[in-house]
């Protein structure tokens, strides 16, 4: 339900001051969608604001006996629909603006796929690669203790993100459980299967990318079995996505990771590349492939580009060099707002992050449900439910795009914002 606006004033002057500030980029897309929805100014102000932002100090006893203090964040953007949901990342370049943007994206992402969660995100400013496993565990447990008051199965349910994994989630679950004096598996998702995790969760984001790519190929009349695909990023999302897309019959002609990229016009053997990457720590040097810069990987000739690493890899300076006719965003925020305009002019069909990578949060929701009912599905059932959600969401966004003559990104924002606004309208504003 949209509420008619009598005053367009709040929309004026909103836009990205910096192309690479993720929060400003999120607000730019939010602004465009809100205008088209004629969102009530009061609802606009609520939805563009975060509900809660927590900044904490995380002291850690280092292996050498010294103490270091790390900075941690947890931002809850909106809880109108249900408990907040969002990952926790450990990285040296984590900023509050980044966490704010990611929390808002989670709100819209959950709404787009119809998952009854609000959006949240967290992070600790640290470099896990420079830390021992014991130091990472101590940081995780102290950070968990610091945000204890605002997380929980009915409040805020964290998940893995950049540089965090099943083990980190297990530590969070254990720390939370020790504080409340009973085991609470539903406090986080992305846990090991033996600790209440869901089958299919690790592959969920990459599998979701495949599901929406199939639908996008139908819309653009592209035969995937003859398609050339480039995957930027070869971690959990990109690596699994590449493996699944390769199994579909597509030809993966380019892949990159943090060390560099490779290109093979005849197509890469993805199962062998996965083994090579595990053994050598990178895709670089894979036999039979040519080296390509990790910045240039997005400019390779291809039918489909899957950016599956970090933010801002497609930007104003390189968007015009993108050769793909379809982009499926496995990463969060890989395309800047200014690059969006260029891609739109070029006629590139972009499946945006808040739709394309929503497989992860969808199966996180299924994990949360399984934890709470104490009964777990087989992987085929999890994947079946994921497929239903992703296909339905793709076509709902596509119908919105066709109806309002906008790109898929703004259509996804319109769908997500409208759903959250409708939920708020029905609940009423407690003021």
Please describe what this structure looks like.
This protein is α/β, with parallel strands linked by helices. Among the domains are: 51-186, 3-Layer(aba) Sandwich (Rossmann fold); 204-356, NAD(P)-binding Rossmann-like Domain (Rossmann fold). Helices cover 43% and strands 17% of the residues. The protein is globular.
Alpha carbon gap, first and last residue:
21 Å
Please summarize the sheet with the most strands. 7 strands, mixed
Low-confidence stretches: 1-16
| CATH topology-level fold name of the domain at 204-356 | Rossmann fold
* Total count of strands: 12
CATH superfamily of the domain at 204-356: NAD(P)-binding Rossmann-like Domain
Q: How do the strands of the widest beta sheet line up side by side?
A: 9-8-7-6-10-11-12
Strand content range: 15-25%
Helical segment tally?
Answer: 13
List the helices and strands and how they pair.
Blueprint: H1 22-37, H2 41-48, E1 52-61, E2 67-78, E3 84-91, H3 96-113, E4 118-125, H4 133-146, E5 156-160, H5 166-180, H6 204-219, E6 228-232, H7 236-247, E7 251-257, E8 260-263, H8 270-280, E9 290-292, E10 304-307, E11 326-328, H9 337-346, E12 349-351, H10 353-356, H11 359-373, H12 379-404, H13 408-427
Parallel strand pairs: 3-4, 3-5, 6-7, 6-10, 10-11, 11-12
Antiparallel strand pairs: 1-2, 2-4, 7-8, 8-9
Helix pairs in contact: 1-3, 1-13, 3-13, 4-5, 6-7, 6-11, 6-12, 11-12, 12-13
